[in-house]
Amino acid sequence: MESEMKCNLSEMWSSKMPKGLDLEISHHPMTMRRVANLIIAMERLKAGTSESVLSTEFRDENLLNIMMENMVEERVMFECFSNPPSQFRRTCQHQCSVTDSQQRHLVRDLNSMELNAVTLQAGSENHKVHLTMSTYLPPLPSTEAKARPVALCIKDTNIYLSCHMDGDMPTLNLETVEDKSSLQRISSDSDLVRFLFYTQVSGLNVTTFMSASFPDWYISTAEEDNKPVDMCTETDNRYRTFNIRSKTPLTECRLAPRGHERRS
Fold it and tell me: In the chain, what are the domains?
């Protein structure tokens, strides 16, 4: 296996080069194969051999002896990613639309800055809200081993869904975030956790959204049509599951590699 090398080849051979010849090596990183072939080429050059120094490729019978006589420090590079135990880290983003278990779409009320659950008629689907869903790695150890936190933003805006206390009840809000990069990493004790919801997938693209700030409180819709989306407990008659429609399945986004944020 070829490995990255850490060595100063110019210094290794400069003093041995024939008079009038300079040595300049610009290829980086060097691998064991390239170092071996370069050593052979330099030894042939010093010996004045007529064979082309450009055609070495491990054919020299003295390769082992040459390699034994030239010390090369080898360094193998490993790139590791870890998530600080007290942070949510964003790993993936994709576009999606969401409907509740009664097949009602989310529609934004521009006057009240609320989301309503609305049964749309044919030809009126252009009113539905499309979301950008950002998926996060949770802090470790996670109390929600089977769930994955997400942030929900109205597509092409800086408006996010958030949950915070209003009086004695958690409520769902639409909130403007001036700097989206502030949500790249979220400390578990930060007020920004209000933008996160734990998804719990129970079937093909069917999920619930539980507030990360207020466990056991879920995004919900009313029984009546064209009513605001809000928060409720699992035993409330407003409790709903949601269907997520996306070109990227939620399960695929959930499995995004650590350290690599996927963008649609």
Answer: 87-251 (2.80.10.50)
Decide which of 122 and 186 is more confident.
186
Q: Where are the alpha helices (DSSP H) in 15-141?
A: 32-47, 63-69
CA 71 – CA 74 distance, rounded (Å)? 9
Distance CA 240, CA 110 (A): 24
| pLDDT (average), residues 241-254 | 72
Categorise residue 259: left if φ over 0, alpha if ψ from -120 to 50, beta otherwise: left
Question: What pLDDT does 73 receive?
Answer: 42
- Number of helices followed by number of strands (H, E) in the chain: 4, 14
Sole residue written with tokens 């004790």: 189
- Residue 16, both tokens: 């041995």
Percentage of the residues of the chain whose pLDDT score is greater than 70:
56
Residue 240 vs residues 13, 107, 114, 131, 264: alpha-carbon distances, Å: 73, 17, 18, 18, 28
Lookup: tokens for 149: 């936190």
Q: Are 163 and 142 in contact (CB under 8 A)?
A: no
Q: How confident is the model at residue 70 (pLDDT cuts 50, 70, 90)?
A: very low
Which pTM was predicted?
0.63
What kind and span of H or E run contains 12?
helix 9-14
Q: How many other β-carbons are positioned within 10 Å of the β-carbon of residue 212?
A: 24
